[in-house]
Amino acid sequence: MSIRVPLGSLALPLAAVLLAVSLISGPAAAHHSFAMFDNSRSITLHGKVTAYQWTNPHAYLEVDAEEAGGGTKHYTLEMTSINMMSRGGWTSRTVKAGDVVSVVVAPLRDGRPGGLVLEVTLPDGRKMLPGVPNAQNYKRTS
Fold first, then answer.
1. Would you say the pTM of this structure is higher than 0.85?
2. Domain ranges in the chain?
3. What is the pLDDT of residues 72-117, one digit of tens each?
4. In the 8-state DSSP scheme, what is residue 37?
5. Fold of 43-137
């Protein structure tokens, strides 16, 4: 004995399931990995903060870093989520434009002036960790 179900009666439940799956998977697909950052080395930047963006899904720190031969180079540095940073003591006012900081960064693999913030030394000497997942896998070389 077999039961026959008209295809038309499956259309509405199937559409509802597909809609639910697309809504759930959208935010997950939008989040990226940290593969663009070189975890085999680090660089240390010293310079003036030009912007600090306390935003989701990631905070950003912009720094005009001093160059060895003189002058500055602008770096856009990615941080983790503000939720993770809050757990480490960060707030929207931890850093402000004009602050002079030192930043340990896992640089971008493609050589552009940017990277993933691993540690920030604030003007008062406090060292702040931004809560990078698997931070122990990022080699410190500078």
1. no
2. 43-137
3. 999 999 999 999 999 999 999 999 999 999 999 999 999 999 999 9
4. B
5. OB fold (Dihydrolipoamide Acetyltransferase, E2P) (2.40.50)
